[in-house]
Amino acid sequence: MSNIPETGRTSRVTIRLIAIQILVFSLLATLAGRLWFIQIRNGDEYTAEAAGNHVQQVVKPAVRGSILDARGVPLADNETRLVVSASRTELLKMRDDGEAVLTRLAGVLGMEPREVLEKVRLCNAETKQPCWNGSPYQPIPITDEATAQQALTIRERAEDFPGITAEPTAVRRYAAPAGADTAQVLGYLSPVTDEEIKEAEDTDSPFLRSDQVGRSGLERSYDKWLRGKAGVTRYEVDKLGRVMGMTESAPAVAGHNVITSIDARVQALAEKELHQAMKEARKQHDRNTNRNYEADAGAVVVMEAKTGRVVAMASNPDYDPNAWVGGISGRDYAKMTNKKSNYPLLNRAIQGQAAPGSIFKVIPTAAAVKAGYDFNGKYACTSSYSIGNQVFKNFESQDHGMIDLGRALEVSCDTVFYRLSHQEWRKDGGLKPKKNAKDWFYETAHQFGLGEKTGIDLPNEVSGRIPDRQWKKDFWKANKDNWCERAKQWPKKKDYLTVLSRENCLGGMKLHAYDSVNYSIGQGDTLVTPVQMASIYAAISNGGTLHTPTVGKAIVSPDGKEIEEIEPEARGKLPTGKKTLRQIDKALEGVATRGTAAWRFGGWPQDKIPMHAKTGTAEVYGKQTTSWFATYTEDYAIVMTISQGGTGSGASGPAVRNIYNALYGIDEKGGINKKKALLPKPQKNLPEIREDGSIKAAALPKAGRRGGE
């Protein structure tokens, strides 16, 4: 009989198999225990380590599109500069929050340590400019004017400058072609904030932390197109920062270019003439205040009469928008925002509100005809007009006898309009208005587009004010508490403001006779902007169409294949018949040839280029008079105003005449030199767009920037 078991295994083999089984079960038990240890007992720890393997993105900023004038000349474009930036994230890892590094950096850059430290602090309610108002995780630019030697020093001594980079970067440039700053029209850029990033998350134009966004002007209005789309490459990295792989990549897409209706040559001229007019006004003595005119601010608008496109728009005081590039300094920010500088960031062409004075009279003229008065009827132009014990004088107490409405415009007779407005006020019920009160003088102003924004493609436009009955009620409700509190000082105090407060407290909600009388000549509580008046005078020129003013003319894709033209849009018609409009037009021509503006248009070739004008001198309580000058030809409307500048024809007239001379090539004797004419007809066509998408720029004379004088 054999000793071999039926299984065919020896006892030694069996023992080995059992040992192997025990070993396998032990390994499985160990693995299970390890899995329990990793996933259950120390699960949180390993989850945290896994989270260390995350995605980092590298952003390549898109090249921002250029803003060009009507002939392709860059008003705002980009240039490569050496930019030194600081990583706030890296600096905060240091014991002193990077103060020592930033102090060393200031020494290399030739800056004050305080100036560098201020640039990296975050803006908040307590911390004002200079500070960083962008994302705290984005590199903060310290300067965009580093020299090659400074950049080399920073890179060679990297151990002394942790968190600091010096790289060539495309930055915004405001070129001021021909000396045209165009500051308030162009606007400026600053970094996107965390709040803006969050707000734009679900829009068709989200932000990245590296984005610069437009804060005012065209940079803001057309930011969506100009900004482009940044390139983003995403890498998976471990907790030590080692790249484990690329997850996705999207190339940067350059921004679109915006072609405007601005002509850099005309813009430069408008800025120069406005600046010079203000300087000249300051040399003139004001007999009312016994001191020279202050001429502290002004604006001028040159508009295409048939389209509403803006050819030039200047505001003074102005500034150099390049000051914002790379982060504005504390000194520059203070200069732009303090009272002493008179707030140059304001675009007074669309944000400057003032009583219009006599350039407003085209509106009560149209209103009078609508109310049933004959344009050619005879109206008394006496030296004064009385309502009770109040006497309202004509300008310089002149008496022109019986005249029609056309002549009233030519000589700017106040008392004609006083009478008409007072009569209409009484017809409407006076202090107790009828339910169906016509209020022709106020209603017509609204129909001329006043009291509301024109809709120009620039941000922060204001609406002005037509002080009708509803406005009086609303204004009284908002201010009655303050008025009535001050009125308690009466009769012990009888100064002007106390007496006025008492009157407003008791009857400020009513439209008084004196309100309507002052309103009829563009005084009192009436407020307009230069762009509103330019739009109105352009409408009179073109036959009655009110256009929405525009600065943008076309949006062009980077490759030049997509061109979106911005067509002129009508926003209404003047509320006058063709006959009345022709009569007003003829009267305004008379202003330029034999009326209050005639002395400024001596020698003008009226037979070849008919000129129309209206002068205005508006009184402002506590200040000197505001100068207004409104004009038009069949091609252009030009309106200029100078705050505390004196009379319309005296202060603004010469500057407006000089702009027309340059536009049409008019010499001192009234001859027309077409070769010297800057723009005798508005630019209709877009500049040449080449096959590669670049836009051909017209040649310009060299001129320096005034730099915010």
Could you tell me how far the N terminus lies from the C terminus, measured between alpha carbons in angstroms? 124 Å
Give me the count of strands. Answer: 25
What proportion strand?
A: 15-25%
Which runs of at least 5 residues are low in confidence (pLDDT < 50)?
A: 1-5
Percent range of helical residues? 25-40%
Secondary-structure-based class equals alpha+beta
- Overall geometry comes to elongated
Mean pLDDT equals 90
* Number of helical segments with 4 or more residues: 23
Radius of gyration: 35 Å
Sheet with the most strands, sense and barrel status: 7 strands, mixed
Features:
23 helices; seven-stranded mixed sheet; disordered N terminus; alpha+beta; single chain; 709 residues; five-stranded antiparallel sheet
What does this structure look like?
With 709 residues, this protein is α+β, with helices and mostly antiparallel strands. The protein has 23 helices and 25 strands. The strands form 8 sheets. Strands 2, 3, 4, 5, 10, 20 and 21 form a 7-stranded mixed sheet that branches. Helix 15 (405-411) packs parallel to helix 22. Residues 1-5 have low confidence and may be disordered.
